[in-house]
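#dry-run=false #mode=assembly
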Amino acid sequence: MARVVVDVMLKSEILDPQGEAVLGALPRLGVNDVTSVRIGKRVEIEFDDAVQNVEEQSQIIADKLLANPVIENFTVSVLDEDAV
Amino acid sequence: MTKQMLNPVVDTVGVAAATPDEKQPHAELGLAEDEYSRIREILERRPTQSELAMYSIMWSEHCSYKSSRVHLRQFGQKNPKTPRLLAGIGENAGVVAIDENLAVTFKVESHNHPSYVEPKQGAATGVGGIIRDIIAMGARPIAVMDSLRFGDIDHPDTARVLPGVVDGVGHYGNCVGLPNIGGETYFDPCYQGNPLVNALSVGVMPRERLQSMQASGVGNVVILLGAKTGRDGIGGVSVLASATFSEDDDSDSRPSVQVGDPFEEKLLIECCLELFDTGLVVGVQDLGGAGLTCALSETAAAGDGGMHVDLELVPLRAKGMEPHDILASESQERMLLIVDPANVENVLARAHRWGLLATAIGTVTDTGRLVIDYHGQTVVDVPPASLADEGPVYNRPIAEPNDLALVAVDRAETLPRPTADEDIRRTVLDMAASPNLCDKSWITEQYDSSVFGNTVLATPHDAGVIRLDESTGVGIAISLDGNGRYARLDPYAGAQLALAEAYRNVAVTGATPIAVTDCLNFGSPEDPHVMWQFERAVTGIADGCQQLGIPVTGGNVSFYNQTGREAIHPTPVIGVLGVIDDVARRIPLGLGQTGDTIAVIGTTGEELSGSEWAWATHRHLGGVPPKVDLDHEMKLADLLSRLAANEQIAAAHDLSEGGLAQTLVEAISNSGMGAQILLPEGADPFTYLFSESTGRVLIVIPRGQELAVRSACEQRGLPITPLGVADAKTDGLHLRDHFDIGRAEIEAAWKGRIGAKLGE
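#status=ok
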């Protein structure tokens, strides 16, 4: 079984209202030394054993569906089977 | 750019004076050779990099209206004088008086190109931007509307753009807490690579709270309020908004887009209103498409003429931003305030309480110059009016399109049409199911239409109606309408048809139309045929408003709506605002009660050119659009407001796209009632059902009022034709001597189409 992790993050120049909200809430916890919070998402995908082009298919899935390439970047990591 | 990395010293006024021959990228920034020369003349040296960026932004089509200005003057010349108009064209939004206490401000604006690049955020920031225009006038925003146009519903890209745009409009409006009370959605292949997203917002204020954008009072402090400044949409205005999309748009050239935060905007609204109410603000301006550049130069130019700004004080979100980046940034949710020095502490404290950043970044001066320093070095020193008011003005060539005569004789009245009852019956259902006429609930259900609890009517009614004052019941009605096909056939008539329809839609609720806003969506102004369309449309609106006696109060022009050489249909979208003394007496859509009389006011001619029928069934667009009679529209509006005030009318619905057939479909679907209809003797059923003759309204008269209504029509010279009765026991539509269509069949055709097409 091939396992793939896709990490999606907003591009650095794009405003992240969610991250800003977390940043604004931190002082309430008494944490005052954080300068930036950016929030993204991690997607785990499992492929059928028979699939050959896991990397290629993952790229397509990430580019067309999981990420919005206009405002987001993504990375695709194919995990070692032993690591599963 | 490479040079800059090697040399970290910013391009100051001193450097510019010392290096007059330095090559500058004015062409890449969209400035023509003669425009660049003029900047050098104004400054008597070469502009610094920051100045060049500012001129390129302020002199772009988007900000300077350089191609449209000569034509837009007609609005000023022909606008009827009315004591209601408190602020007009040139302000952030037009303001009209409602009564001795209240005023209303409203405006429609386009966000077309950004919504193609990134549909959700593009549409969302379009809504955010128009809301800030309303705040800047001193009003509390109370509602939004949207006019949307997409490519063919079956095109795969429509499945990308439409859900994104609707999500964006809904996301921003719902989160900021404003009801979406109406709008329109159309599909046409001409909008394939260039969707239109026009957003309207309306606000209300006590008359004395009207704000000014003037930076007046020497020594007053310039405060930046709201979000931090980041790299959002840098160059967006000059590069993005004035660039044509090429068919093979590759990912590397994707421009950076803005992302908004509606919750921050909500704080801005509340904070600004508090500051206005406490009288702490001398002047205010929103930061829109051209960011600080526009806000600084416009407030300075409108005020005492001078301003000094220390740019390094602007709070930044991104690292490594250069002065010109800060000036050009289109980061959302920011406002500029002009405040008396004695009140600065108070303003900053109030902003802090609302959780908003507020920073004093400069002062008003009487030098006549806008001077911007960056860490003590002067990077901008210009006369502000040269940016804001004295941009280039072009009288671009105009040429009538060559195909005009050919199009005019290609009449839809000659197309084969159904004659057998069974075929006409089928056509009613096919039309109801067509993309432009079908139920748009899939879209409007994503919008909150009732937050605030003042919404009286919203989609699917002809116009949105909002209550302004609980104690008096006074309210406003707004409708937003356009028809690109009619305007393609005849831009003058098309613009007036849009105006007439918006006017009628407002009147149909019982309100009296009082003011107009317009969003003019056209192709490239460098194309003489497009410029001809533009000139005709503007003239049509100006003449029409003059005749109707209601002024154009503001709006927006969007050029370069084209893909390659293919321009969109000229698409003037018109918003009409009306006032209704008591919203309890508004006229709803529907069929009233059993036994009420259904009648049509107006005359039905054989007018099928440009019609929805010609397009939906034949993909035909040709001929001459329906005739407009604005005098008739005024009589109709007068009649409807009188009938509403006297409670002599149970329901009404405008006849427009799709004709009487579609009006009946909508009235039946939205009322739970059936209709028994008998067409007038000798009328051709097809023509009577599908003609799009204007100036027609379906009205439902309560029992006992028939004679009063008839005489009210006769007094005004309005033809009225009784067609039948409303009846709860009748299943759907009974068209006597022709056919019946049950409610289930009507609803199966009309409902659920959009979702089904989008695979949901």
